[in-house]
Specification:
Elements lengths: L14 E6 L2 H11 L3 E8 L4 E7 L5 E6 L18 E5 L2 H10 L8 E2 L6 E6 L5 E6 L1
Length: 135
């Protein structure tokens, strides 16, 4: 009897799912400020919720969900579980200046002690920690 061996090869990240407390505010943040393109917007009446699919690039998406009465995020990025979401940028100083023009106050720019690359953190409308990382 032959034994079949299965191999799983992950080729990338397809999407990141985010639940927001104020759909219109978060939609404006991710579309108008961060510049992600809308792929599809769906209202699910049975759940009284929206699902907004956003294109980051040709391979990765954000699924932005709204649900009624969602609990607040309980901790900062150092808790067990998902720590933060990081976006690649070509020029971090320009990205920080852009965020500040939109009344988003990032932390001070730091240097990754392992890679020598610049990075900083900021928050989305629901205090989800987001990072921009210079490539």
């Amino acid at each position: 009897m032959l034994l079949k061996i299965y191999i799983m090869k992950i080729s990338g990240i397809h999407h990141i799912a985010i639940i927001c407390s104020d759909y219109e505010r978060s939609k404006k943040f991710y579309v108008d400020i961060l510049g992600f393109a809308i792929i599809q917007e769906t209202f699910r009446a049975e759940r009284n919720s929206y699902k907004l699919d956003l294109r980051i690039n040709n391979h990765t998406q954000i699924e932005l969900f709204s649900f009624p009465n969602t609990p607040q995020r309980l901790s900062n990025p150092e808790a067990c579980g998902l720590r933060h979401l990081a976006f690649a940028v070509e020029n971090i100083e320009d990205a920080v200046a852009y965020l500040k023009l939109h009344d988003i106050e990032p932390e001070n720019i730091r240097i990754d002690e392992i890679t020598g690359k610049k990075f900083t953190f900021f928050k989305d409308p629901d205090n989800l920690p987001l990072e921009i990382y210079e490539i």
